[in-house]
Amino acid sequence: MSQTSLQPDLTFNVRVKKRKKILWSLGIVLLLVMALVFFISYKVVDTLLHHPRDTNVSYELNIDKTPYEEVEFKSLKNDNTIRGSFFPASGLSGKASNKTIIVVHGYTSNRLVKGRTPKLVEHFVPKGYNVLAFDLSSQGKSDGDLITLGLNEKYDLLGAVSYLKSREHAGDNIGVIGFSMGAATSLLAASESDDIKAVIADSPFRNAGLFLREGLPFFSGLPAFPFSYTSTWMANWAFKVDLDSISPMDAVKKMQDKPVMLIHGTGDQQISYKNTEIIYESLKDNPKAEVWYPQNTEHIDAINHYPTEYFKRVDRFLDEYVGK
């Protein structure tokens, strides 16, 4: 065989080897990029679910006028000890009350709800309501090391209900006011408890998975693709938190006769009021459901922006369904 006839075969072999090297190089680069994406997603979710606690739970109240007790009870999941404050109406009136409002805070907060709980206490205790405010698992002073955006927190709220039922008459008539993640948690728990007579949800998300996918660029600065999807997957795979299963918009479909008030400011940049529109649509067959969209109001700020209107609406709702 001539040297000339061997030349094409040699050239072909060289080309094949070059292509293999290129493909191997591209494959390695792709694997490195994927590994980096999943590593960043892990860190994002790890930070989200292990946010530093705010343990400042000191009330700026006149204790002589608003006495309270530090209380503990168990979550109905993971056996976490939940810590909170109980403000008995009897502290002012001297008469035990059979109606109680539970306050449920949001993400990166505690029982004070960034100053909103004292306003609720000072308003409702003189009206004859007990108030129970507590720290959700892994926040404030409660036990736990994982925030789950409502997945397990609903069991903290159900534990609070169980605790009130153990106190004489305090659990006879229970209403819940939840804020942000606490609003979503309140809707989830209320859909599973007949002991919760009515719920007020201020600025809830409709679904935790959708909330993360839509909000991740805003909170982290990362592009939506691919991180919104890989982060949701990572939460489930690494931390066993199925964000897509945390769905208030589906839970409320089981509450077609339970009183529900939804509040959401149209100026909310953290959780769009469109979330509440979708939740309210799921309640369209519930004659006891209502919604209020305070104009140009930021996240959970209706109580500060429109205090007179806020308490007028909330009073009417709670007096009708909890306080009667």
UniProtKB/TrEMBL annotation:
Residues 149-323 form the Peptidase S9 prolyl oligopeptidase catalytic domain. The lineage of its organism: Bacteria, Bacillati, Bacillota, Bacilli, Bacillales. The chain crosses the membrane at residues 22-42. GO terms for biological process: proteolysis. Keywords: Membrane, Transmembrane, Transmembrane helix. Pfam families: Peptidase_S9. It comes from the Bacteria. One of its GO terms (molecular function) is serine-type peptidase activity. This is Peptidase S9 prolyl oligopeptidase catalytic domain-containing protein.
